[in-house]
Amino acid sequence: MRESENKVELETFSVSPAQLRHLRTLEMSPSSCWIATACVRIEGPLHVDELNSALSLLTRQHEILRTTFRMLPGTREWTQIIDETATAAQVDLVDLRDLSAKELERGLCVLSAEVHTAFDISSQLPLRVALAQIADDEHLLYLTQPAVANDRPGLEILVVELAKILAGRKLSPGDEGPMHFADIARFLCEAAEGTDLAAEKDHWARLDGEGLLEQRLALEFDRGAGNSDSVPNAVVRFLDGNFTTDLMAWAQARGITPAIPYLAAWQIILARHADTDEVTTAVSSPGRNYEGLDTALGMFARLLPVATSLDTKQPFDAFCDELSTQVLIADGAHEAFDLKSLGKAEDLAWPFAFEHHRLPDAFRTGGLSFHFEKCTHRSEAARLRLTVDESEYGGMLRFEFDTRFLTDAAGKLIAEQLETLLRNALSSPNASIESIPFLPAAQEEILRGAFACNQEAAAHESSGFVHHWFAEKAAATPEALAVSAEGRELTYGELHELSDRIACAIQDLGLEAGSFIGLYVERSVELIAAIMGTLKAGMAYLPLPPDHPRERIDFMLRDADARCVLTRSSEAKGLPAFDGTVVLLDQGFEGEHETPRDDCRPESTAYVIYTSGSTGKPKGVPISHANVAHSTHARIQSYADEVRSYLLLSSFAFDSSVAGIFWTLTQGGALVLPPADFEKNIPELADEINRARVTHLLGLPSLWNAILESSDASKLRSLRTVIVAGESCLPECIERHRKHLPETALFNEYGPTEATVWSTVYDCLQGFGRAQIPIGRPIRGVQVYVVSAEGTLAPIGIAGELYVGGAGVASGYHNRPDLTAARFVPHAFGGEGNLYRTGDRVRFLPDGNLEFLGRMDQQVKIRGYRIELGEIEAALTSHAEVTEAVVVASHRDANTQLVAYITLKSEGTFEERSLRFHLTPLLPDYMIPTAFVRVQDLPTLPNGKIDRQALESTDSARAEAADGTADHVVFEAPETAVEKVLGALWQDLLKKPKISRQDDFFQLGGHSILATQLFARILETFGVKIRLRSLFEERRLAAIAQAITDQADEPATLERRAEIALQILELTDDEADTALQA
């Protein structure tokens, strides 16, 4: 189209596909500087007037240098507009000859900054030139263009043509003149729409568009919400000329381009940091496949996705060969590529990108020498980009990243690992990918030192015994409160005396020192006295929670060969048949106070905790006195606030109880034990905290979140330190804590039972804002290592298995030499003693904190308890009708639920209640699956093993199909407004698509902590405060809805509130936003 504006002749043309892709990117981030730029050092007698004449001639001959770009009004259609009369701007010389080295550097920086600014592509001509004279016969020429007007090869062509004009030579033979980009763009658009690209389009159709978009490195995070513009940074690594020459020779010998080894190394690093075998990288393609385009100015270059599947067993050189083929295929199909064909927006920012360029060698013409110092082009956005620039002098790896998603420290370590991998791969190209090390020496030193262990020296040695430290406090402050429970209190003097009497009674039995003493006692003052008494007697205590199944208690007694059980009269009747001595703690402990013999040694066992076992039976973990002393001493030194009053939330069958009991009683604090069923009355815990002026507590993150959500924050103000542990801590919990208790410290602890309660700790408020909460750094006296499958240290940011060493590590498992040998292994990294293989997948973050990623086996955690799925499966297959059983953990937000898949021997009806009844005497309640799904056959892998991944990928849908309603005859939809709103609350908490009136909250996966959240939401939604216990008593939706109605002061007001809430729930997101704005 031709038009006239003030007698200026303009021509408009369509843009090319590559230009359109860039222009969509420009729309996404209009303030970003998308340019192509070159810096050329010219040696020889250069005259400014001749340079200006040459630039004018170039501008007349090349339409693209007289082109602007505009979007047609009212559309998203871009056009390029050619000004037939435009002339090149004149270049002024900036003389920097007489400056010092520092002044010269500063002057060049200022000039470069002036030139390298964004263009207004709708009005400014697309060429900006600056010239600096730095010596009599030496100049620096800066050329800058908008990215949409020219690419890197085009800039190089521009410089060559400029040199020819300055040398007095013709630009091209004959009278045809240069190819005009507008004509090329029209041709490329027509080619892209052609019908002969079926094979090429089929290639792109096979690409996983969703997977491409979702790619992320594990170290990435998003702190750029609401900010559309990137915050770029770059790390540069230089490669010497010898290395790049050798690499080029190796590539040529294999028949591949020099870019491929760099790309291969980049793909491997991305795969390792993304923790995947499938990686897609956007690779630069020159886009000049047609004859004649190699000498044309204009933007042809674009990024094309290259997908690879990484086999770490494959040799590096073979991987390079495959990658080369993939790049050639992608480049050959570039015309048919369109992001829209992948279902993606044209302004998509690539997750990963790669570019490889070689600067042209210096050339001489007409008495002038031209040396390219720099040449770059950016037209498409990418979060992470590797650019390789090679020249005759060597190479440069430029790792660019958006700091909204990657920290500077992470960028630096990835760049270092990339260079290390590249060098090692080229030294042994036929080595398997998995065997090529990429851990830089400097990072390995950090992993063995600063990251591995706490560098702070302990104030004094942790040798001793916790019951001795308790005795010292009892002697110093005998009248101070030591423990309170069930409305009873014992002072330090009273607890010391009672525990001495218990110790003497145990010693009078004549048992061998170190024998296991079972404690079959609910939480009470007697329980604490029994623990201390057992330790004083030189024995080891064995927790036997009365609420555990009798068969499980019986197994632990027999496996530990316990010869004595301490209990109370009220609980003794629940004890399984036992041929040892039963001592009743509420009888026969009056009379003279005697001092027990001190038979303890540091290596003697202090207690044994049984955890779930993969063989179907729990396994015992004996912990020594030295282990306990170290763990307690490290806690005293790690936390600044002294324990004055501690709320013991953990069951004594759970090893975190050890933390609270001994931390408190060795510091002279008061131990506060809530009722055994406190989880049914979580809001009342705030009253207890306020009454007892509790300063410290440790609990599950979900429990602490429930306390915060359901309590008046003013009742929690006595708390100085809160510790969460046992499950993943979510940012919402930290945010709620920070809002309600900004002056109270919050820490996230991690540690397996085998390493005595805790091994690492993280200050949650110090790192506030993280999307995923780390498990922290090692505590004093502990070493932590992240180990690869090959047994070497995993580089920072790479996932591996966590090994723990140091004074907290136990000696092994009780009566399990096979498992002990597998899990407690010799120290391979220069330390003393054994290392415990936790089976936990973790990675080191660049700041030295560990991030928990999950398990390497089938172990899961439910409400803080370690559970081996094999133990549940063994219990299920002991049912007469069950042939096979597989249990998977379904993770829905912060709520982990167990789903059992079973095959039955007969074709009869399947009753869930029968399985629950069968499991109840065998397993604790937290190990009983939420849902049971009957299947005809369990999916298997080619090797015949159960395909757990297939089950895990579908467990949500199948569990929702069952939805705990297997025993329902028909589905009953909620009827009243109260029932409907309550059902919506259940759906949100339990992650269920539908709720029946007769559904049982706890059979659908509810538990005490979720019940507390439901209690808080009922109060917020309906304005009605029901008894939390009624949720446990009523259980079914219709019954709880009736309880809400019965409790309401004004039923009519309640119904009105429910109807309003129902109307809000039925709004779409857009309608809700509109209503809020109104």
What are the key terms here?
single chain; 1078 residues; alpha/beta; Chloramphenicol Acetyltransferase; Rossmann fold; 32 helices
* CATH superfamily caption of the largest domain: ANL, N-terminal domain
Supply Rg: 36 Å
CA(first)-CA(last) distance: 47 Å
CATH class designation of the largest domain: Alpha Beta
Q: Please give the oligomerization state of what you see.
A: single chain
Write up this protein.
This protein has 32 helices and 41 strands. With 1078 residues, it is an alpha/beta fold. It has five domains: 2-184, Chloramphenicol acetyltransferase-like domain (Chloramphenicol Acetyltransferase), CATH 3.30.559.10; 204-365 and 376-448, Nonribosomal peptide synthetase, condensation domain (Chloramphenicol Acetyltransferase), CATH 3.30.559.30; 466-844, Rossmann fold (3-Layer(aba) Sandwich), CATH 3.40.50; 859-962, GMP Synthetase, Chain A, domain 3; 977-1077, Non-ribosomal Peptide Synthetase Peptidyl Carrier Protein, Chain A (Orthogonal Bundle), CATH 1.10.1200. A hairpin with a 7-residue loop joins strand 34 and strand 35. Helix 13 (466-476) crosses helix 14 (492-507). The longest helix has 20 residues, at 408-427. The chain starts with a strand and ends with a helix.
